[in-house]
Design a protein that fits this description.
Elements (H helix, E strand, L loop, with lengths): L3 E3 L3 H17 L3 E7 L2 E9 L10 E9 L6 E6 L4 E2 L5 E3 L20 E7 H18 L6 H12 L12 H8 L8 E7 L2 E6 L2 E6 L17
Antiparallel strand pairs: 1-7, 2-3, 2-5, 3-4, 4-11, 6-7, 8-9, 9-10, 10-11
Helix pairs in contact: 2-3, 2-4
């Protein structure tokens, strides 16, 4: 039998496929699958440094889903390799895993402290502004390196409207479908990590010298 993920109900399986599809479009095309105790953590990188001298912030999108309680795994696969199974509660896995540099670091599971809030409407507005800025700045026949440089410049800059977090957190929340209604996202910190949590998922970023996450504020927003 081909490798697969088994979910307790069809909506969870469909949710996993949707996350993978969105992650494939927004990030580097890889998804980390970590399952234990009946919970599947799906993680994708929306922005990450390319090399040791690159100070682009790491920005991860994470979604938790119920899964077969007997499943224990921790692997990285290409997003488009997750496919609908023969049954609506199955998701097919590829025969082989892949590697991703960002998957070698894991956010802490505990020790998070409150650090403010950001309105979902603000996240959506900053994401849409950034998408337009990237589209305007990328040359017509730009290569992969030029596109990456533009994305890092636009999404890696701290934004006062986001409590000093890099703009990429807004893009991650928007692109992965985490933003809905008039929700307010809770912001929490743990060491060099900052997590922005919405009902549909989490966006996590790691401090770099460029982003200066120590400047995260709990008050004072601007449009």
């Amino acid at each position: 039998m081909s490798p697969r993920l088994l979910f307790p109900h069809a909506p969870a399986a469909a949710d996993a496929l949707t996350f993978a599809q969105r992650a494939g479009r927004a990030g580097d095309g890889a998804v980390r699958l970590r399952a234990e105790g009946g919970v599947l953590a799906m993680t994708a990188s929306v922005l990450a440094a390319d090399g040791l001298l690159d100070d682009t912030p790491t920005i991860l999108a994470m979604r938790f889903l119920p899964v077969d309680p007997e499943l224990v795994c921790d692997l990285v696969v290409t997003a488009d390799a997750l496919t609908p199974g023969d049954e609506p509660t199955w998701v097919g896995l590829p025969e082989a895993a892949v590697t991703a540099s960002w998957a070698g670091i894991s956010p802490p599971r505990s020790g998070w402290e409150p650090a403010g809030e950001v309105a979902a409407a603000t996240l959506a507005a900053r994401a849409q502004w950034g998408i337009a800025a990237v589209a305007e700045a990328v040359p017509t026949d730009a290569g992969a390196e030029a596109v990456q440089a533009v994305r890092a410049h636009v999404w890696g800059v701290p934004d006062d409207a986001l409590l000093g977090l890099p703009r990429g957190v807004a893009f991650a929340a928007f692109a992965l479908g985490f933003i809905g209604g008039e929700e307010t996202a809770a912001v929490r910190r743990c060491g060099p990590w900052t997590r922005l949590s919405l009902a549909r998922g989490h966006v996590i970023t790691r401090e770099t010298s460029r982003v200066g996450m120590t400047a995260v504020r709990t008050t004072g927003r601007s449009a």
